[in-house]
Write a structure and sequence with these properties.
Structural class: alpha/beta
Largest sheet: 9 strands, parallel
Strand order of the largest sheet: 3-2-1-13-10-9-8-5-4
Radius of gyration: 21 Å
Order of helices and strands: EHEHEEHEHHEEEHEHEEHHHEHEH
Oligomer: single chain
Shape: globular
């Protein structure tokens, strides 16, 4: 088991942009030093609790201050960018990170982000993703082409005599690793990711959903001739680790994790009827509170307890390779959160190696 950090998905809107920037760049450094393997930063333009509009700004700063961790926009929302411009920016960032980079891509989930760009009907967003990736891959080849598609025009010019030389826009190592997340089931995004040989990410809504996500992805990948194993799969889970169960529970409920769930996530899930997958068997999902989440949904406790809980989840779901932990804002008192990240890599991962069967 590896651990990764998905940063700034749930940041209190009272934080200023500078406070957010300082926190998320600093968290990349903490995660790198703690031994986490990946650092993901979300992209949203209008959502108050997800305040980073340009993950590449954060990741460029992190590239200069980290040594091992992979840096990953999670995700660039392709319908809202000109793909040729984004391709050049991505390629440049792969060089800044010297290959420590994974490109997360998505179609966009929030209507407000779409409306900002003049898109009032999001049903075409997936088709925009497909065309955007076609253009980006052509740009990364750094060879002349001309594209006139349904959504964009783009091209890479031919070098002519007397013209200024063109810059090489190929990515570091010649290729970009790409990842895509899925939430619903069946997931159209994960089927597409499998067909293209991308890395799958599962937004957690129960162990059964994780198993469904893997089935959708692996079937599409195998049909397209791409090799698969469960170590590829990243699964998003809220995790908090401390020396004792009591201490971990306190900092989970009373800190940034509990604050985000109480203020935005739990009301949102209840309003949309999305709790059933997270709390199977609960007669009244509307009765779910932070105490219930800490005991039954979040993975909270000492290193032994967290390892045992995760091992049970791996057994029930079929397994995954990297736990993608959402970052919560503990800026007012970062020590417990930072220690939790350290304990995940240093104490939980070795225990899981003994407890859990290897992902096949």
């Amino acid at each position: 088991m590896k651990f990764a950090l998905f940063q700034s998905p749930h940041t209190p809107p009272e934080r200023t942009p500078r406070e957010v920037y300082d926190w998320v760049v600093g968290q990349a450094i903490v995660a790198d030093q703690a031994g986490l393997t990946e650092y993901w930063v979300g992209e949203h333009a209008t959502v108050a609790w997800e305040p980073v509009p340009n993950p590449e700004i954060v990741l460029a700063a992190a590239a200069a201050q980290t040594e091992r961790i992979k840096l990953c926009p999670g995700a660039h929302l392709l319908p809202y960018h000109h793909p040729a411009s984004l391709a050049v920016q991505v390629a440049w960032l792969t060089h800044l990170a010297e290959g420590r980079y994974i490109l997360g891509v998505g179609a966009g989930a929030y209507p407000s982000d779409a409306a900002l760009r003049g898109i009032t009907d999001m049903r075409g967003n997936h088709e925009m993703v497909v065309e955007a990736l076609e253009i980006m891959e052509k740009v990364w080849a750094s060879e002349p082409f001309h594209h006139e598609g349904r959504f964009w025009k783009a091209g890479y010019p031919e070098t002519k005599e007397g013209q200024l030389p063109l810059r090489d826009v190929r990515p570091y190592g010649g290729k970009v690793e790409i990842a895509m997340a899925g939430t619903s089931s069946p997931s159209k995004s994960l089927a597409f990711a499998g067909s293209r040989g991308y890395i799958p990410l599962s937004v957690f809504s129960g162990n059964e959903r994780v198993a469904q996500h893997w089935a959708t992805f692996s079937e599409a990948a195998e049909a397209a001739g791409h090799p698969v194993d469960r170590s590829m799969l990243r699964v998003q889970r809220d995790v908090f680790v401390a020396e004792t169960d009591k201490e971990a529970r306190k900092w989970a409920i009373e800190g940034g994790l509990g604050y985000a769930w109480s203020q935005i996530l739990l009301p949102h899930f209840k309003r949309l009827g999305l709790l059933e997958g997270l709390v199977p068997g609960v007669a009244d999902p509307l009765s779910v509170d932070l105490d219930y989440l800490a005991d039954h949904v979040w993975i909270v406790g000492s290193p032994d307890t967290v390892a045992e809980k995760l091992a049970a989840c791996l057994e029930e779901s079929g397994g995954w390779g990297t736990t993608l932990v959402p970052g919560h804002n503990y800026a007012a008192n970062p020590e417990p959160w930072n220690e939790s990240l350290r304990l995940m890599a240093a104490e939980v991962a070795p225990r899981l190696k003994k407890l859990a069967p290897a992902a096949d």
